[in-house]
Amino acid sequence: MSNLHPDTLSYKNTVFDFAFHPSEDIIATGLISGHINCVKYVPGPGNNESLWKVRPSKKSCRGLAFNHDGSGLFTVSKDGAIGALDVSTGAVLIKKPDAHDHPINAVKLLTENILATGDDSGTIKLWDVRTGSETLQYSDHEDFISDFDYDTDSKTLVASSGQGTISVYDIRKPIMLTMSENQDDELLSICIVKDRRKVVVGSQEGILNIYSWGDWGDCTDRFVGHPNSIDTICKIDEDTVATGSSDGIIRVIDILPNKFQGVVGEHEDFPIECIKVSHDRTYLASCSHDDTVRFWDIRYLTGNMDKDNEEENEEEDDENDENEETQGDKKDDDNDNGEGGGGGMDVDSDDDSDAPKKKNNRRPKKQAPAPSNPGFFDDL
């Protein structure tokens, strides 16, 4: 098993957001300059491969989201536009200008067919990606929408906002279900954990506010300890989250019982814009104001390292079994030829004890790239 991670991606401008492909080792990055880059990331120095680079808008790219099968990439920008790119070529399939009247700040694919966007004025819109049409609009906030998370089973969207509240929506209904009490602090990031029993929200003051699902009035617990704002959160597992702070440090936090577990990595003193986990849960990536995207190996957190070790041990056991079978065949051949069986067994035994065990250093076989599907937004 290799413990290498991919090289850092370095740019000439600030990276506002990035997105991991849902099934392939591909990452897309969106820059303040409006450029969008697509890179195949590979462990080891100098192995990353740039696939394409486009600039669909001169305004900053505020967010990215792959579609369900990874064939398309949705983009949102400061000018209020939504776009869709072909992942195989980078070609612009559609650009929907003036999708919002204000700069779009958050985007998330909720289902195979529904995309959510939130803007600086507090407006949330849901889009049918098959037609490009707006299906629902919520205007319950008075300040920017900072982040989304979504529960598939209950079809519930939760949103954090700069006005200090979180809002809750059943995406099948045209009105908001509820809104929390105002925390008198900007809420910047949000994550559903504990099998939908808790929602963790990061704030400008560096406090993790923990809400109980269904009890949205006020948070039921708080975790204090971040010295600066918690700008981004991602889930490691149902009991653990990673936080990215404006002090440049990525921390791992256990939720209920609340405990600081350790530091994954850091961007020196540069604020972290976004952290996300790769499709195979091997890497956590982070982007910062140092104009980079960095990769951190988190198999020790996700359990993938144990799985890799088990696979290696299985490979070694299989090789040992094959060697024993081969040796047994040789013994039978020796006996058939009338040679002394004792001498042959001694030689085989000595060779077997001195032979070094082989380890499988191959990475798991990746799935074939998803076919191009320019069909979304077809009827726009």
TrEMBL record:
Start and end residues of each stretch annotated as Disordered: 306-380
PANTHER family the record matches: WD REPEAT-CONTAINING PROTEIN 55
Keywords assigned: Nucleus, Repeat, WD repeat
WD repeats mapped onto the chain: 97-137, 138-179, 272-299
Species the sequence originates in: Modicella reniformis
Location(s), subcellular: Nucleus, Nucleolus
Primary residence: nucleus
Regions of compositional bias (Acidic residues) in chain numbering: 308-326
Protein name: WD repeat-containing protein
PROSITE patterns: WD_REPEATS_1 (PS00678), WD_REPEATS_2 (PS50082)
GO cellular component terms listed in the entry, alphabetical order: nucleolus
Entries under SMART domains matching the protein: WD40
Family classification: Belongs to the WD repeat WDR55 family.
